[in-house]
What does this fold into?
Amino acid sequence: MMQWTRASIGSKLAIAFALGLALAVLLLSNIFTQSLESFGEFSAVKNETNIRNQSYYFLSTLTQDQAERYEVVFQQFSALTQLIAQQAQSYLDHGDLYGRTNLNPQEKLTFYPDKEIFANSPTDRVAVCYWDQPTISAAVTSQINRLSHIDPTLEQAQKANPSAVAAWVLLDSSVIRYYPICR
It folds into this structure.
């Protein structure tokens, strides 16, 4: 009987031990699962934050580089614009010297009634237009002649900056010189 009691107690202890072990395994697996889920969420948040920070850094660097490139282009445009303006002013101020003859003696303006504009030939290197009056006065002819001397500068300015589509001078008297001519 003692053996039976011992066996009974041993079996009960074994069962209790097995149950305790099973509960401990369940508890640990539950803790492990929750920890794994928490770590996954933490990792996802960290990854999202890192990706966002890297994206912001990349975009800000890209924007800064592009802004610096544009600034160089704008500075070139500004310098060329100042050069053209200074030369145009010099030619306009010296009408006695530049106003008598056109740098391009073959340049003739024709009136286009449908557009109400005077323009030179489309085969000329530089486009010249006047649109304020139905006739061209002697004063406007003098301005056109004076500005014709800026044609080489317009050509050089446009070619000096590949980003420039054209170079031109427009006066408030409705005279424009434009290089290259639009075709």
Remarks:
- The two ends are 120 Å apart (CA to CA).
- The first strand starts at residue 110 and ends at 112.
- Residues 77 and 161 are 8 Å apart (CA to CA).
